[in-house]
Structures
1.
Amino acid sequence: MADAYADLTVIRRLLNETKTWAFVGLGDNPGREVHTQARLLQQRGKRIIPVHPAGRTVLGEQGYASLADIPASERPIDVVGVYRRAEHAGAVVDEAIAAGAKAVWLPLDVIDEAAAKRAQEAGLDVVMDRCPAVEWALRRN
């Protein structure tokens, strides 16, 4: 069912037209995949917002402990990257909805069908079980 959340039109729009991505799970460990993905999108002109309980500055951007802690001056949040284990993804998606995000992106192997459905019902675009770096490389403008 995750393929239902891999619409190429949505993927292209998120990669090409968005500006601000909040990465939930982005801490200061450069060995983690979330760090690699955030850096890639930052290098391609996206503004990133690290979201991690430590709330540290990462990749030169001020971090916040939760999506709710991101101040209004840092919004809107175009995409929330959900770099948490699948069992925690639903809570992050609910936070993204509450924060007024426009989309959620659940990377490879982070699958939560119920959370994806809630996000869509709330009007958010949803990409699930896809890697931003791979999709960026494959995108057909």
2.
Amino acid sequence: MGAAIIMARDVLIVAVVLVALVSLRVLVLIRSRGSVLCCLRPVEGKRGWRVGVARYAGGRLNWIPLIGLLPRPRHVIVRRGLVVSGRRRIGTGEFFGFLEGVTALRCESAGFTFELAAGYRALTGFVAWLESAPPGAHLDVA
């Protein structure tokens, strides 16, 4: 019986450490300068929304999932050639009440079609980033 208690304690310690590490990652990502909380969903597989952080880096938008093992961006969206083809309001049941009143933009970049959803301020920043492209950059915003 003593070995089972020690094993349960060890499992509990590992679980607490993992929760602490995930919480630390979330805090660091959200509070990082120039980071914007948003959701991304690839259109091809119709997978669900993933909550993450977008960071602007010159002509790129780096999207990092909020929960994950690797600290590097999962998607790098290049401003040159980015096409924004549509916009829609998110339904109340789509995020299970987590984010309401957000707008999704349908985008395509280098053959990757996705929707990017965020609140009004974050999307205003995204559009400003798109419009601030240097002269001669090809942008297509519908």
3.
Amino acid sequence: MDKTIGNPFSWFAQRLGAAGAHASATVGQLGGEATAREPTIRRITRADLMDALRRGAEDAAAFRADVVFVILLYPVLGVLLFALTLQGELLHILFPLASGFALLGPVAAVGLYEMSRRRERGEDTDWFSAFAVIRSPSFGAIFLLGLYLAAIFVVWLLTANLIYQETLGPEPPTALAPFLAAVFTTGAGWTMIGLGVAVGFVFAAVVLVLSVVSFPMLLDRRVGVPRAVATSMKVTRENPRTVATWGLIVALGLVLGSLPFFVGLILVLPVLGHATWHLYRRAVRWD
């Protein structure tokens, strides 16, 4: 049988799936203990979300400049990526990059979870405490889960590029004004917007389900990646409306924080990051 070169996107998806399956099989207990107990999943309400946000705001206010230093890298990277996009023929990736950048939010906030954890225990906490994650027994598991989210981010960018190719493409845009005119004044442009929003929603929902409590849980207990992700999925299954509301709150917060040029994230991300820790404490109970 003749060998042919398949679609690059399909090839990438197949390789990514194979790599993910292999990683899951070989590091199933990375950072975890085989005897770790199963947690109890609690019912949470919108009142719990409001309480988590209140406590998150209290943590952010308590740490003040320490928190700003910890998350400053996130908006800086966003600005750099935007600048690189504007310099080349990648204008069609500008919006997918801005919206998809939020997929990495749970990874960027790991240091904030650690600061909230320490404050909850009454331990001395400063900006350097956020880097104690590196010394955590579960750091390998946290790093692996972060790689998974990074892979999802890359796949989202590839998908967004494919949508552009099938609508306004295949030639890349050369200037911002003509590109925006094509997006908002042509049928192909509106088709691209519709498909992009629908597919982007699926990616965001997947990340929300996988990470709503998994990163804080890995910091709190040596449970391993599979159990942390499974618990996150259970929390979503037991509290679908509440988790969906939380996802909407996070999405709106990140959109507002991204204006202008991600600067607002310096204020928004600390509150959301600390609040995620408190949401985990309300949703997952260890008897």
4.
Amino acid sequence: MDSELKCPECNSEHVYQDGSLWICPECAHEWNPQLAAGDASAEASPDQSVKDAHGNVLNDGDSVTVIKDLKVKGSSLVVKGGTKVKGIRLVDAADGHNISCKIDGIGAMNLKSEFVKKA
């Protein structure tokens, strides 16, 4: 941990990192030290947008169509190709499943954007 890093709000030394943000448990302030310092490389990070199988940018609330049959892990269910999913939510997941949605007949699940196309 960086011993010089202090909370910019309350000047507390008891801060911890959560992903790219630093958090102060005393005043609940969250900040990115690279952006606070004006680091240009942090602002010019690569495009973090989520794209479907055809390269279209996806947004929260979009409707998508599954492009191939997908087995549901841990069950005998299958999401058939051509299934339309409404009202997706984009999430940041380390395992590649970056779409959270609800599919009729199956329920809530996460999908990879490479297996859907924008409807």
